[in-house]
Design brief:
The structure holds three protein chains of three kinds.
Chain A: H1 19-31, H2 39-50, H3 55-65, H4 69-78, E1 90-95, H5 98-102, H6 105-116, E2 129-134, E3 146-148, E4 151-153, H7 161-166
Parallel strand pairs in A: 1-2
Antiparallel strand pairs in A: 1-3, 3-4
Chain B: E1 5-10, H1 13-17, H2 20-33, E2 40-45, E3 57-60, E4 64-66, H3 74-84, E5 93-94, E6 101-102, E7 114-116, H4 130-135, H5 140-148, H6 151-161, H7 173-182, E8 189-194, H8 203-210, H9 212-226, E9 230-235, H10 240-255, E10 271-276, H11 286-293, E11 317-321, H12 322-334, H13 336-340, E12 350-357, E13 363-368, H14 373-380, E14 390-395, E15 402-404, H15 414-419, E16 428-433, H16 438-452, H17 458-475, H18 481-496, H19 501-505, H20 508-516, H21 518-524, H22 536-540
Parallel strand pairs in B: 1-2, 8-9, 8-11, 9-10, 12-16
Antiparallel strand pairs in B: 1-3, 3-4, 5-6, 12-13, 14-15, 14-16
Helix pairs in contact in B: 2-3, 5-9, 5-12, 6-7, 6-9, 8-9, 8-10, 9-12, 16-17, 16-20, 17-18, 18-20
Chain C: H1 6-15, H2 17-24, E1 33-38, H3 41-45, H4 48-62, E2 67-72, E3 84-87, E4 94-96, H5 104-113, E5 127-129
Parallel strand pairs in C: 1-2
Antiparallel strand pairs in C: 1-3, 3-4
The chains are: A alpha+beta, B alpha/beta, C alpha+beta.
Chain lengths: ~170, ~550, ~130
Amino acid sequence: MTKPHEIDVYEPVEGELPKEKFDELEAFINSLESTDGALIEILHKAQNLFGYLPRDVQLFVARKLGIPGAEVFGVVSFYSYFTTEPRGKHTISVCMGTACFVRGSDKILEKLKEKLQVQVNEITEDGLFTLKDIRCVGACGLAPVIMIDDKVYGRVKEEELDGILDTYR
Amino acid sequence: MATRSNILVCGGTGCLASESDKVIKNLELIIKARGYENEARVIRTGCFGFCEKGPIVKIEPDNVFYVMVGPKDAKDIVDEHIIKGRTVDRLLYREPKANEIINRQEDMPFYKKQLRVALRNCGLINPEDILEYIAFGGYEALGKALTSMTRDQVVDEVKRSGLRGRGGGGFPTGIKWEVTKKQDDNEKFIICNADEGDPGAFMDRSILEGDPHSVIEAMAIGGYAIGASKGIIYIRAEYPLAISRLNTALNQAREQGLLGKNIFGSDFSFDINIKYGAGAFVCGEETALINSCTGKRGEPNYKPPYPAEKGYWGHPTCVNNVETFANIPQIITRGADWFASIGTEKSKGTKVFALAGKVKNVGLVEVPMGITFREIIFDIGGGIQGGRKFKAVQTGGPSGGVITEQYLDTPIDYDSLISIGSMMGSGGMIVMDETDNMVKIAKFYLEFTMDESCGRCTPCRIGTKRMYEILDKITSGKGTMADIDALKQLAYMVKGSSLCGLGQTAPNPVISTLKHFWEEYMAFIKDVDNPRGEGRHIAKNKIKFATEK
Amino acid sequence: MSIKSMDELRKIREEHQNKVNLRQSGNNQEDRIEILIGMATCGISSGARETLNAFVEEIGKQGLNNAKVITVGCIGYCHSEPTVQVNMPGQKPVLYGTVKKDKVPDIVNKHIIGGQPVENLILKVDFERA
C-alpha cells in the first residue's frame, strides 16, 4: 500500500482559513494506513474541520494525495453532503422525505424561506442560519420534521417556527 | 366540528352484505332523536378485515369494538354507550377458546399480525451491550456455522430458506452467496449496504440503532460462507447515532474475539470496516456503492461483470442490505425450513415496512409476506387519520408506483407488487388520503430522482429533468394534452434506456399515477375540451386539493 | 476476554439468562426491576433522554436500588414515542407509550413501587418476536 506522495503543499492563500486546521487535516491524512480509496473519508474530515470545502481545501487534499484537483471537485460536487459554501452558525434542515412531504413539509420550507429571507442553501444576512432541504432523516413517525444542527423537531407547525428560531437567536 | 365520540361503522363489502348500511342509518336517526349530533358522529370506514364477524362497529376514542351489530342494536349503542358511557357487553367480541370477553381491539388474537424476525431484538436489548445480545441467543448462529457447518452447508441453508434481498430488487440471497463463493480469488469482500436512501424508509437505521450485532454476526457468517475475510459497512453519514452504536458494537465484538483472528477457534478470520456515504441515493445501487467505497463518484457500472465476479478493487464482492443480514442469524439457528414456512410460495419470511403518511399508527411493522395492504394499513396502522378516505399507498419509494383501493386485498410479495405496477423496494409504505393530489405526488418523486440522477446516462439525466418540467407545467395549470403525450413518451424512453435501477424505475410514479389517476391529470389540463379529453366532466367539477387549502 | 468455543458462548448466555426470563415472561427469581427506554433517533427527538433522566432521578430519590434503567433501540411505535417497557419480577412486562418526563413519577410510584400498572399509558403489543 502506498503512502501519499511527498509534494510541497503551497501555503493557503485565503487568510481566513486557519493554518492549524490545515495542519490537523494533514496529520489526519498522514495517519491513514493507506490513502487508496480514502478520498471520501478525508473530505468528511476536512468538512468537519472547516465546516465546508472551499477551493483551497480541495486543492490541498488533491496535492496531498497526488491526484488532480478535478477529481476531488468531481467527488465533492457529486455528493450532496459536501458543501463548498460556508454555513451559518446553525444549519436548519427541512426534511423533504415523502412522509414529511405528504404532511406539509413543503409549506414549512416556504415559511422558513419567508421568515429568514433566504433561498435553500443560502445563509442568512446575520450569518446565523443556513437553510437546507434534506432527504429523509428517518424520523417519519414525527413528520413533518426539521432539524437544527443535530436536534430534531418533530410534528412542526408553521406557527411554532418563530418560537423554535428564537431559541437560537 | 370535533365531536366527543366517533362511531366507526364498517362499510366494507362484507359488512354491507350484512346490513351495515342500515346500522349506520339507525345510528344516525337515534343520535339525532336524542339531540346528540354535536357529541357523536357516525363515520363509514373501510373494511376492518374481520368480515366474518360483521357488521363491525368501533367507538372512538374509547376504542371499544362491537361485532355482529344488527340494525336493532343501534339503539343500545347510542343509549348505553354514547349517552351513559357503559359498554354493551352482549355485542363485544368473545375469544372462541377461552370464551373471554374482549372489548379492546388490540387484545384480540386476530390482531397479532406482526411477526418480528429482523426486528426481533429491537427495543428488547441494550444495543451497546454485547452480553445482552448473547443472552438473547446472539452469536450462536455464527458459532454453529463455524464449528459444525461447512461453507457449502451455510450457502445451502440460506438458499433453501428462500430469503430474497430486502433492499429492493429481491434477488435470492443464497444464489448471490453461491456465485461469490465459486469465484477463484483469495481476496473477497462482503459489504453491508446501509445507505438507506428511499425517502420514507427507516428500517435499516432502526436495526442498526437497536440491534447492530445481528448485522455484524450475519456479515461474519456471510464472510465465512463466501470466503471473505473483510467486511465493509457502507452507511449514510446522516445516521450519526447508528454509526456510533455500530462502532461500539464492532469494538465489543473484537474484544470478545467474535471478530478478528480464528473466530470460535476455527481458522476463519474476519473483520469489518465502516465507510461513510455522503448523500447520494444512487449509491444504493451495488456497483455505484462499490465505486463510492473506493472514494470515487458513486456512479453505477454496466453489469456484467457482476460485483460477485469483479467488485471492490476488482475482487469478488457480495453486497447485501441491512435487513437481509438481520434475517441470517435466525435462518442459521432455526433452520431454512422454519424460515421457509413463513410467507408465500416465492417470497419467504417477513418484511419490515415503514408505515407513514396519513395513517394513524405511523411506525415500523414487520409482517409475514402475503399479508394484504388492508391488513397493514387498517388493522395494524389503525386506518386513515381524521376519518378521511383512503386514496392510495406508495410502495418502493421513488422507484415504485401507487396502489389504489382495488388492490388493497392483494397479498404482498415481490412478484405481486410488480404485477400491480409497483415494487417492494426497501419497504417504505406511504399512505395517501383523499386530500392528496396524485399529480403533485408524482412530481415530488420525480424531483427526487431528477436531483439524485448521477448524470451518467443521458436519458436519465435529461429525461427526468424534462419530465419534471412537464409536471411542473401541468400542476401550474398550463399543461396541454400534448404535454401528457410527451410525458408518457419520455417515461418509457427513460425506463428503457438507463443503465441502473434508478433510471429504469424513475418514471414508475408517473406511469402508475397516469394509469390510476388520469382524471387528476386531466383536471389540470387546460385544453381538455380537445377530443381526447377523457376527463372533461371532471375538470368542470373542480377537484379540491388539500395542499392548496 | 475472548470467546473461543460454543461452550464459552453458552456459558455467557446462561449467566445472563435471568435478563431474558425477566424481559420475556417476568419469570425471574432475582429481585431485579428493569426499565427499558427506546432510545433510537425517533425516541430521542421525542424526549426519551429527558424521560431517561427523570427515571434515574426518581429511582434515586425513592432509593430503589434494585431498579435498572436500560437503553434499547426502537420497537417501531413511532406514533407513541417515547416508549418505555417496565419489567417486574413475577409480572408480564408492560409497555408504555408517550412517556414524557412528567409521566415518570406516576409510573415509578404506582407501578414500580405500588405494583399497579398505569392503565392509561399502556400500549398493546401487536407483534410476536421470532
